[in-house]
Specification:
- This protein is an alpha+beta fold.
- Helix content is 21%, strand content 26%.
- The protein contains 2 helices and 6 strands, in the order ββαββαββ.
- The strands form 2 sheets. Strands 4-3-5-6 form a 4-stranded antiparallel β-sheet.
- Strand 3 and strand 4 form a beta hairpin.
- The chain starts with a strand and ends in a 17-residue tail after the last strand.
Length: 106
Protein backbone atom coordinates (compact mmCIF):
# COMPACT_ATOMS: atom_id res chain seq x y z
CA UNK A 1 0.00 0.00 0.00
CA UNK A 2 1.50 3.28 -1.07
CA UNK A 3 -1.27 5.54 0.18
CA UNK A 4 -0.76 7.85 3.15
CA UNK A 5 -3.28 8.24 5.96
CA UNK A 6 -3.65 11.02 8.47
CA UNK A 7 -5.26 9.80 11.68
CA UNK A 8 -6.72 12.28 14.12
CA UNK A 9 -4.30 12.79 16.98
CA UNK A 10 -1.21 11.92 14.91
CA UNK A 11 1.32 14.59 14.03
CA UNK A 12 2.08 13.36 10.50
CA UNK A 13 0.82 11.36 7.56
CA UNK A 14 1.68 7.67 7.78
CA UNK A 15 1.85 4.92 5.13
CA UNK A 16 -1.37 2.89 5.06
CA UNK A 17 0.64 -0.29 5.72
CA UNK A 18 1.13 0.88 9.34
CA UNK A 19 -2.61 0.51 10.00
CA UNK A 20 -3.51 -3.15 10.45
CA UNK A 21 -7.23 -2.41 10.17
CA UNK A 22 -6.61 -1.03 6.67
CA UNK A 23 -4.23 -3.75 5.45
CA UNK A 24 -6.53 -6.57 6.59
CA UNK A 25 -9.47 -4.88 4.85
CA UNK A 26 -7.49 -4.53 1.62
CA UNK A 27 -6.37 -8.19 1.72
CA UNK A 28 -9.94 -9.37 2.31
CA UNK A 29 -11.33 -7.22 -0.49
CA UNK A 30 -8.59 -8.29 -2.93
CA UNK A 31 -9.26 -11.97 -2.26
CA UNK A 32 -12.96 -11.45 -2.99
CA UNK A 33 -12.13 -10.15 -6.44
CA UNK A 34 -9.48 -12.71 -7.32
CA UNK A 35 -10.07 -13.98 -10.83
CA UNK A 36 -8.95 -17.50 -11.57
CA UNK A 37 -7.59 -16.73 -15.03
CA UNK A 38 -4.88 -19.30 -15.34
CA UNK A 39 -5.73 -21.28 -18.49
CA UNK A 40 -3.39 -20.81 -21.47
CA UNK A 41 -4.61 -22.04 -24.86
CA UNK A 42 -2.43 -23.24 -27.71
CA UNK A 43 -4.58 -22.94 -30.80
CA UNK A 44 -3.75 -24.49 -34.16
CA UNK A 45 -4.05 -22.04 -37.05
CA UNK A 46 -3.42 -22.71 -40.70
CA UNK A 47 -1.16 -20.26 -42.54
CA UNK A 48 -0.25 -20.84 -46.19
CA UNK A 49 -1.41 -24.44 -45.95
CA UNK A 50 0.74 -25.19 -42.90
CA UNK A 51 -0.29 -25.57 -39.27
CA UNK A 52 1.13 -23.11 -36.77
CA UNK A 53 0.40 -22.59 -33.10
CA UNK A 54 -0.88 -19.42 -31.48
CA UNK A 55 -0.76 -18.97 -27.71
CA UNK A 56 -3.75 -17.22 -26.12
CA UNK A 57 -4.64 -16.30 -22.57
CA UNK A 58 -4.58 -16.47 -19.65
CA UNK A 59 -8.32 -17.13 -19.44
CA UNK A 60 -10.89 -18.15 -16.87
CA UNK A 61 -12.76 -21.45 -17.35
CA UNK A 62 -15.83 -19.44 -18.37
CA UNK A 63 -13.88 -17.55 -21.02
CA UNK A 64 -12.46 -20.78 -22.47
CA UNK A 65 -16.00 -22.17 -22.68
CA UNK A 66 -17.11 -19.03 -24.51
CA UNK A 67 -14.22 -19.40 -26.99
CA UNK A 68 -15.29 -23.00 -27.61
CA UNK A 69 -18.89 -21.91 -28.04
CA UNK A 70 -17.93 -19.23 -30.57
CA UNK A 71 -15.76 -21.67 -32.52
CA UNK A 72 -12.56 -19.71 -31.77
CA UNK A 73 -10.90 -22.80 -30.26
CA UNK A 74 -11.52 -26.52 -30.73
CA UNK A 75 -11.41 -29.55 -28.47
CA UNK A 76 -8.31 -30.63 -30.41
CA UNK A 77 -6.43 -27.46 -29.39
CA UNK A 78 -4.24 -27.61 -26.30
CA UNK A 79 -4.45 -26.03 -22.83
CA UNK A 80 -2.02 -25.58 -20.00
CA UNK A 81 -2.15 -24.19 -16.49
CA UNK A 82 0.12 -24.05 -13.47
CA UNK A 83 0.68 -27.56 -12.19
CA UNK A 84 0.53 -29.21 -15.61
CA UNK A 85 3.74 -30.78 -16.87
CA UNK A 86 2.73 -30.59 -20.53
CA UNK A 87 0.12 -29.16 -22.88
CA UNK A 88 -3.07 -31.25 -22.85
CA UNK A 89 -5.74 -31.54 -25.57
CA UNK A 90 -8.69 -29.41 -24.49
CA UNK A 91 -11.10 -32.32 -24.95
CA UNK A 92 -9.24 -34.36 -22.30
CA UNK A 93 -9.54 -31.81 -19.48
CA UNK A 94 -12.25 -32.50 -16.90
CA UNK A 95 -13.15 -28.82 -16.51
CA UNK A 96 -14.16 -28.65 -20.18
CA UNK A 97 -15.88 -32.02 -20.33
CA UNK A 98 -19.33 -30.39 -20.29
CA UNK A 99 -19.21 -27.51 -22.76
CA UNK A 100 -22.05 -25.09 -23.38
CA UNK A 101 -25.02 -26.66 -25.16
CA UNK A 102 -24.33 -24.64 -28.29
CA UNK A 103 -20.71 -25.90 -28.51
CA UNK A 104 -19.92 -28.46 -31.15
CA UNK A 105 -17.09 -30.94 -30.71
CA UNK A 106 -14.82 -31.00 -33.75
Amino acid sequence: LLDLIFKEGDSQWMPAEYFKEITSLVKTTASQFKVDADWIVLRTVEVDGRNHYEQLGPFTIEHVLQLIDKGKIKFTDFVWRTGYENWVPLGRVDEFENPLESSVQV
